Records
---
Amino acid sequence: MNPLPVRMVVAAALIDPDGRILLAERPAGKHLAGTWEFPGGKVEPGETPEAALIRELREELGIETEASCLAPATFASHGYDHFHLVLMLYVCRKWQGTPHGHDGQRLRWERVNDLFAIDMPPADRPLIGTLAALI
Ligand code: 9L3
Ligand code: MG
């Protein structure tokens, strides 16, 4: 039996000066549409995880950050039917620009303890506890 392909995904907990964290709604038509995720996306072949996250934050939210502002926080894996997702979460407190959903996706800022009650993708959920302990 062949192992499932692994999909490497990076995401950011963007934390504002009040300690709130940005969530982005997954757009209609995409896998897990309507759930609220830590923004990010797939690592492309030949990319470092940090470069992928910087690119995704630029493409999805229109903000600029740099590798020195991305602190690795935690990771989790989740098995889907056709692939195995490995999700790496970085904490980011410094960026340029104001996040807005480039594809029309809605955004919300929430306190870490309120994340447990939000409909997040299954790979994101197990990250909340570690994130809460870290920040
Ligand atoms: N995903 C899960 N949690 C996240 C992100 C950014 C992504 N915080 C999952 C959803 C998709 C896959 O990773 O199955 C790839 O994400 P995208 O490229 O569709 O954003
Ligand atoms: Mg994405």
---
Amino acid sequence: NLLGNASASGAGPLYVQLRNALEAAIRAGHLADGEALPPEREIAESANISRVTVRKAVDELVKAGLLVRRQGSGTFVANPGERVQQSLSMLTSFTEDMARRGFETRSIWLERGLFFPSPEEMIKLGVASHVKVARLGRLRMANQVPMAIERASLSSEILPDPDAVKTSLYEELGRTGFRPVRAVQRISACNLKKEDAELLGVREGDAGLAIERLSYLASGHVAEYTCSLYRGDAYDFVAELTIPV
Ligand code: 16G
């Protein structure tokens, strides 16, 4: 009985008592990492409290990172060691990848604007020195956990207004008919520098994956040049291999 210990957790509003009881159950291992929480309706009935109260308690634990909600499948005890399994064969966006897992995505903007291209951007994007490029730098989070630092550059001919990107770059490119159809991705190991490690919530020198993506339009033009730093402790990149024919 999850609310059994609630009275022991002291007074206060009912939802706080339930929140404390649930937290105690998780910390004591009565609810194991990755385990599903009983449906809110069941908790409400067994504890004889309203579903609104249960919802409020669960919301708080989701915010605190102890529980995770997965769309369509329920609420689970967070598994801190769980790594994201990311397929290397699909050209998808971060927002789509996370939505498919039922994770809530959020980005913190590090940079957004139009700039004259660096020599590297000129080469990668194939733009002349007078053509501005849109730069989008974001810390990308899933369920409030920082996952990657992503710095995308696109020719202003493809993305004239970087401020038009609200949550998803690929969604905006889809809207304007510039969604890439092909990409080349390069992954290399790195040790995270102090400022990057701080953003990602890990220690300086921890392992990271540096990923470079060059994506292309059907016309063959480069759509995007993106350099990302993924947390080495949070991501597995998985590719399916077939026999050459
Ligand atoms: C992915 C891509 C990145 C792309 C972004 C768009 C990798 C390594 N990177 O994170 O190149 O710009 O998705 O995401 O896969 P968005 O549409 O959610 O902004």
---
Amino acid sequence: MQYKRILLKLSGEALMGERQYGIDPNRLKEYAQEIKQVIDKGVEVAIVIGGGNIFRGVAGASQGMDRVQGDHMGMLATCINGLALQSALEDQGIHTRLQTAIEIKEIAEPYIKRRANRHLEKGRVVIFGGGTGNPYFTTDTAAVLRAIEINADAILKGTRVDGIYTADPEKDKDAVKYENITFKDVIEKGLKVMDMTAFTLSEENKLPIIVFDMNTQGNLLKLVSGENIGTIVDN
Ligand code: GTP
């Protein structure tokens, strides 16, 4: 395997599947099956999941809600998704632990880095809920932060598209995909991969980001096996 320990970032919206909001159990099951394939190969998997399928702090703020209040609701939404993903993974026979950045001890373990590492060493999937635990930070930033803390080899950002393009491939037919690109080029070209806080944190810590299509079966395994099916961003 090319990667021994990965941080998989999944968007909350991806869990909606064909729905307008909430969680599609079929999509959840598909993701759990994808993750099982790499666990079976001995890869250590940590996951950060977004909450946009339930609530987005920014959207709440744009409708007049206090931003901090909105972000707190968003953090809880990521915990709900984390619990759903935990169940789906357990249905596949995978051992999991959910750790949250905000304490909800009756429901999940609090985030403790050393403990997360131990779980990973034992082959358990660790899901990090609650984002960074702070308002004004995205779950992409949480993903990068946790990936650095647990010393992940790379952050795998699962999306609907199979990589980073010269333009939005869903809008521009002439858009061309990058196989590899540097952090510097992403910034210079104004490409959108992650928000700048997340992105620069990754760059400063020399943590590669791989953008790939999580909705195609077998892709996650191909990626960790070393096949470049997405776009790799590194220094
Ligand atoms: P090892 O010591 O490596 O075996 O890890 P472990 O997680 O199995 O140890 P522990 O005995 O501490 O945990 C047993 C179960 O309790 C696991 O399912 C944990 O996720 C859960 N657990 C541990 N701490 C907490 C907590 O603070 N809150 C909640 N809700 N569950 C917890």
